[in-house]
Amino acid sequence: MKTPLLLLPLLALSLSSSPHAAPPDITAQDSINTFACRFYAQLRTQKGNLFFSPLSISYALAVAGAGARGDTATQMEQVLHMSLSTERGAQAFAELMQGLNAAQKDEQARMEMANALWPSETFSMRPEYVDAAKKYYNTAIVPVDYQHSHAAVAHINAWVQKETRNRIPKLLGPDAVSRNTRLVLVNTVYFNARWLSPFKPHATKPELFHAPNKKATVPFMSQLGVYKYGEVNNVQIVELPYRGGAFSMLVLLPAKKPGALEKLEKAFSPKQLAAWSGALTQQKVRVSLPKFKLNWGPSPLNEMLIALGCRMLFQQNGLILEA
């Protein structure tokens, strides 16, 4: 019998401090991990499986936050747990992205992110904000004519399709913008990598998988190999590396007990992530995983970000974010 599992792409595993302030010594990795855990706490109340990129969301909000001031900036910094309006905070994010890019020089794995601001041709942005968006966040600035909204949507969608290697051909619907739209912020993320130890097709066999409210017989991939593996508080953890060594996936398997998955989710925090990662040692392990496919679909983020404390950003004339 197989039980529900969590699949976690790893950016970094670091300890983090209080989520109610933006301490000057916190790293961008710490900030994103803290945001990821808090955001997941909001997401997990929804039905069904979850698939999201906290790095992508953080990146988009950082671009927006670079132009925020006053209470709006304070709330955004508290939610993202990092300074957005200072050069030091922006530089920390830029260095993180430079590090990710440097780790992919052998091109065995690719993780590409892109930002673009699409202002109305009649909308004027402060030069210092434009400079920061380009310098620290590598953001393209592309003025468009929202008086011809369908053409503007087509232009944005074409850019998204190109940046995601045709994986997302249509981000915005025909009514996503109007003649009154002044600015659209778009972030894309593209990830493509192969396992360091690929699963063999002939070893894939049907097995019973138990989800929280149902069970089904599904194909399970399986192989025996040496992996980083550990057990902490009735949770099995295994790290599956991708080729190149820059990225890996952390798989968490809760105990076969009622409520075990919910208990695991409630424990999800940067400190717990560090504990799970620190418990791993190289061991000979048989890994069995259900074959899975992740499909992208838009999901409004406003309510979840408001629940985390980012209220002023979404007041009248504020932003509408989707991921």
Features:
single chain; 323 residues; Antithrombin, Chain I, domain 2; Alpha-1-antitrypsin, domain 1; 2 domains; 6-stranded antiparallel β-sheet; 3-stranded mixed β-sheet; 9 helices
Task: Show the helix and strand layout.
Elements: E1 6-9, H1 28-43, H2 54-65, H3 70-80, H4 87-102, E2 109-119, H5 127-137, E3 139-141, H6 149-163, E4 183-193, E5 205-210, E6 215-232, E7 235-241, E8 248-254, H7 260-266, H8 270-278, E9 281-290, H9 302-307
Please characterize this protein's 3D structure.
By secondary structure, the chain is α+β, with helices and mostly antiparallel strands. The chain folds into two domains: 23-194 and 295-314, 2-Layer Sandwich (Antithrombin, Chain I, domain 2), CATH 3.30.497.10; 195-290, Roll (Alpha-1-antitrypsin, domain 1), CATH 2.30.39. The chain is built from nine helices and nine strands. It has helices at residues 28-43, 54-65, 70-80, 87-102, 127-137, 149-163, 260-266, 270-278, 302-307, and strands at 6-9, 109-119, 139-141, 183-193, 205-210, 215-232, 235-241, 248-254, 281-290. Strands 1, 5, 6, 7, 8 and 9 form a six-stranded antiparallel beta sheet that branches. A three-stranded mixed beta sheet has the order 3-2-4, with helices on both faces. A hairpin with a 2-residue loop joins β6 and β7 (235-241). α4 (87-102) packs parallel to α5. The radius of gyration is 21 Å and the shape is globular. The two termini are 34 Å apart.
